[in-house]
Amino acid sequence: MTKSSSSAVSIIEESDQEVSKAIQWLNELQDINDRTNKLPIVLQTQKDVLEYLEKHTVETFLFDCDGVLYRSPDSIAGARECILSLLDNNKSVYFITNNAASNRQQLRAKLTTILNLPNNLLTDDMMISSSYSCAQYLKQYFTNHETKPIIYVIGSQGLCDEIKSVTSFNVITTSESESYSMTREELADYIFPDEPIDAVVVGHDTSFHFRKLCIATVLLQNNPTALLVATNMDSYDLVGNDGRHLPGNGALVSAVQYATKRSIINVGKPSTTLFDLLQNQYPTIDPQRTMMIGDRLDTDIKFGTDNNMIAALVMTGVTTAATLQQIGIDGTNVDEPQPTIILSHIGLLNYNYNNNSS
Ligand SMILES: [Mg+2]
Question: For the chain, what percent of residues have pLDDT higher than 70?
């Protein structure tokens, strides 16, 4: 969830207003564009979008979910028709989210319900949640491991289920019935498994606490070669009418990383690890003919631009025209790049051309 829940119509009105502001700013910079050709292209109508897709022969669409297709619990207007039209036209569609709370089946069920799509239209293969990419990464990394790897997970049940369904690894967690605190004496007396663990995985755990941090720290201390894997490194999400910062998974991983001084392997957007996994799983995806559609610059758009895809920003999520203006176009902000194209909302991406639509 990004902004407050409001009607589908007002979400579109808001996003249209943001696009108008972005256009105004981009127009002011037109002389720079003439010299550098660096500015994002704003596609204002369905016709503009279709012409762009045709010109660039886009065949594959990667969708971020929250802020693009829905703003929980409501779908964005036109999202359903967008997905239906892409599938009708034999385009490849994948849903790629940093949310590790769900496994693939749960994500498919959620999208089917929110977008009111026919049952069985979407398949598990289309779901690239960061819980899935995490499981795939672990599976590949430990392919030739002599014993069954042991993975300590700080995260949701959905993340644990996904790792177990993709691998046959031993997944261990800290019971929610244990105390949240841990004293020096408790840690000194705590009984750790005889066998060292092979990886600590951190997903977004809303029950993250000091005891889990202590246990993860000593587990990594006991095996210097064990991995520290993050489902994503998001700093925060926005909640509520006044855009309060909800700490993201990056904050939790950083606590473990700081206590252990380990390197972090990020398997979520915008990492190249995720892109490598994607290419490995779906070798037919051609980045040059792929559009990554998202609402965040530091994850979705960076994932697109870093991996030579067309990075499309929709204005129905966290990014505003003011954000675009703030980061500028000089290319020095590598963490928050400008998108390739901007469209107000996903309803403009629809192969069933409607003369009256805008
Ligand atoms: Mg999003």
Answer: 93
Q: How far apart are CA 56 and CA 48, in angstroms?
A: 12
Q: Is 57 left (phi over 0), alpha (psi -120 to 50) or beta?
A: left
Tokens of 273: 């690890």
What is the Å distance from ligand 1's center to 207 Cα? 22
Kindly name the residue from 16, 64, 237, 330 that is annotated as catalytic. 64
pLDDT (tens digit per residue) in 200-233: 999 999 999 999 999 999 999 999 999 999 999 9
Q: Write the DSSP symbol of residue 66.
A: B
Amino acid at site 107: L
Is position 66 annotated as part of the catalytic site?
A: yes
Sign of torsion over alpha carbons 229, 232, 234, 236: negative
Centroid of ligand 1 to alpha carbon of 223 (angstroms) = 36
With 0-12 / 13-18 / 19 or more C-beta atoms within 10 angstroms meaning exposed / middle / buried, residue 206 is: exposed
Verify whether residue 300 is a known catalytic residue.
Answer: no
